[in-house]
């Protein structure tokens, strides 16, 4: 399993901290602090990387409040990004929704909590139950509709 990470300027320091703790995570940028960068650019880069091998890759995206980068990445078919903010919440998200990307709110989350959450994201696996599979199937139908 490949794990990728990207952020905008607001998540840059948190991204570096995560990579220092988990060096197996592949950095997709930015590689230097750019105050005027935009989170949709990094949501695009990371999401496209996930879509190259969706069954063997996951991602972590970070921006100031986690929402913008989550909205942007969820524009891609087959991407299931989830904003998450605690270990308990993340375990529920993995169990129910099988995200392939988690989005973190850099300004609203404790670093120690984030590092534990990343460990959970790397280890935990989706345990499909009929109701969860049914719901994910309905999401796939929505993705493929022309509404």
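Q: What amino acid sequence fits the structure above?
A:
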């Amino acid at each position: 399993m490949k794990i990728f990470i990207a952020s905008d300027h607001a998540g840059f320091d948190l991204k570096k901290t995560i990579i220092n703790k988990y060096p197996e995570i592949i950095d997709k940028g930015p590689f230097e602090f750019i105050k005027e960068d935009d989170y949709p650019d990094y949501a695009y880069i990371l999401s496209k990387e996930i879509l190259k091998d969706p069954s063997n890759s996951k991602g972590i995206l970070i921006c100031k409040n986690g929402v913008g980068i989550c909205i942007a990445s969820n524009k891609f078919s087959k991407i299931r990004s989830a904003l998450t903010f605690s270990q308990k919440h993340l375990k529920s998200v993995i169990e129910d929704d099988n995200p392939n990307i988690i989005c973190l709110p850099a300004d609203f989350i404790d670093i120690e909590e984030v590092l534990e959450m990343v460990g959970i994201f790397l280890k935990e696996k989706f345990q499909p139950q009929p109701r969860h599979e049914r719901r994910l199937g309905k999401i796939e139908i929505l993705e493929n509709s022309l509404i």
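Q: And what stands out in the fold?
A: The chain has a mean pLDDT of 92.
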